[in-house]
Amino acid sequence: MSVVKTERRPRGELARVLVIDDEADIRELLDLTVARMGLSADCAASVAEAQELLARQRYQLCLTDMRLPDGDGLEIVKLIGERYGETPVAVITAYGSAQNAVAALKAGAFDYLAKPVALEQLRSLIKSALSLPRQSGVTDDGQAAATAGQLIGESAAIEQVRQLIGKLARSQAPVYISGESGTGKELAARLIHDQSSRRAAPFVPVNCGAIPENLMESEFFGYRKGAFTGADSDREGFFQAAKGGTLFLDEVADLPLAMQVKLLRAIQEKKVRKVGSTAEEVVDVRIISATHRILKDCVDGGLFRQDLYYRLNVIELRMPPLRERHEDVAPLVEALLRRICGAQAPRLAPPALQALAGYSFPGNVRELENILERATALCVDNAIAIADLQLAPVAAVSGSVGRDGETLDEYLNRVERQAILEALTKTAFNRTAAARLLGVTFRSLRYRIERLGIEE
């Protein structure tokens, strides 16, 4: 079987793209688009032809259809991942075939396009793929990836996170970052962005729990002048602000169900419609989401859409709690003290450091930073003692379960219920005030009240 080839262009230093599709008109469209971008392309009509070309030539990008006469696009994705890891591969899926797109991203695809192929989206994808930093971690201008050192520690857990961040940075797949409060979920999202092809574009963090429900659509998608009372000019939303970059949805579990539907459509179609507009506009953003809750439990409880969950949770990055990496406490203390006090940072007495190393850190790295800020204000003679740390007492637990034979979940639910009831009692059952007192969002408190069955 002969390989279907494009007309040969001067090789020079042109980036080369491999196009794989069994439809001649699609190959021609992709080839023409690549040529107009000043690139060179080879085309193949089957998996076998693509294998021939890959064995002879190195490519800076591969575009492959999902359906091929002798296999499918996932074979190409896996082959390139195993043998030609430096080549990003994007798949072209049938319109509305979200399942195929997610499967390709999970298999390691850089990104996907839906048929009919939108040329604007195709050009954007090609530019993103060609601007990926080399796998060595050195960017095109010869500078080392700037933010890799911000994840402090040498534990196995944090090293695994670093390695996964490096892999995720070479993909456009949606990432879901799980982990307790204070573990550094936003930092991880920024690292993925800063090491990716989108590093020159904006990183836009959004706290989903802090936006009033009636303003969500306009805040996310923007609005046109006159769309509602007070809309005296056009305004861009979060999606437009993150154009070409990354949109980080923190506490995504706090989104109401009505907004989840709109977000799902925006992610699937890669288009948004401003409030008051009749036309959709293409948006090129990568979605990274996070929450301290267990998102699967929210799905099971009917508080989060299952289809949106699968679109956001294509690849999961778990941020380990500090209690799972106690060996990182000492370097974290050193770095945080330097950040807080500069060159004149106080020293930590050995007993104080030992106390920190044995502490459970319910609030993780954020709690450690708060402890050190307080200790630097209380210490004398530029030395931090145990008393200056003011560590919270550790509750005694007898045996492997809670009191009176309770399981751990039962014990924690009882403690949480008691704290919420105390806050509600102090605020005369004003939920907004109680949420503020507990340091959680109103939606988070409402979810906890429903889960625990608390009644006024």
Report on the structure:
The protein is an alpha/beta fold. The protein has 4 domains: 16-130, Response regulator (Rossmann fold); 152-318, Rossmann fold (3-Layer(aba) Sandwich); 322-389, Helicase, Ruva Protein, domain 3 (Orthogonal Bundle); 403-452, Orthogonal Bundle (Arc Repressor Mutant, subunit A), CATH 1.10.10. 42% of the residues lie in helices and 13% in strands. The protein has 19 helices and 16 strands. A 5-stranded parallel beta sheet has the order 2-1-3-6-7, with helices on both faces. Strand 4 (67-68) and strand 5 (71-72) form a beta hairpin. Helix 2 runs parallel beside helix 3, helix 17 (408-426) crosses helix 18 and helix 18 crosses helix 19. The longest helix is centred in the last third of the chain and has 19 residues, at 408-426.
Outline the fold blueprint.
Layout: E1 16-20, H1 24-36, E2 40-44, H2 47-56, E3 61-65, E4 67-68, E5 71-72, H3 73-83, E6 89-93, H4 98-107, E7 111-114, H5 119-130, H6 156-168, E8 175-178, H7 185-194, E9 203-207, H8 216-221, H9 238-241, E10 246-250, H10 257-269, E11 271-272, E12 281-282, E13 286-291, H11 295-300, H12 306-312, E14 315-318, H13 329-341, E15 347-348, H14 350-357, H15 364-378, E16 383-384, H16 386-389, H17 408-426, H18 431-438, H19 442-452
Parallel strand pairs: 1-2, 1-3, 3-6, 6-7, 8-13, 8-14, 9-10, 10-13, 15-16
Antiparallel strand pairs: 4-5, 11-12
Helix pairs in contact: 2-3, 13-15, 17-18, 18-19
Average pLDDT number: 86
- Sequence stretches where pLDDT stays below 50 over 5 or more residues: 1-12, 136-149, 395-402
- The CATH superfamily name of the largest domain is P-loop containing nucleotide triphosphate hydrolases
Question: Biggest sheet: strands, sense, closure?
Answer: 5 strands, parallel
Number of folding domains? 4
Head-to-tail CA distance between termini: 75 Å
| CATH fold group of the largest domain | Rossmann fold
| Number of helices in the DSSP assignment | 19
- What is the 3D shape? globular
Reading off the top of the CATH hierarchy, the class of the largest domain is best stated as: Alpha Beta
* Strand adjacency order, main sheet: 2-1-3-6-7
Helix content: 40-55%
Our estimate of the beta-strand percent is 5-15%
CATH architecture of the largest domain: 3-Layer(aba) Sandwich
**Compute the gyration radius: what is it?**
26 Å
Number of strands: 16
Structural class: alpha/beta
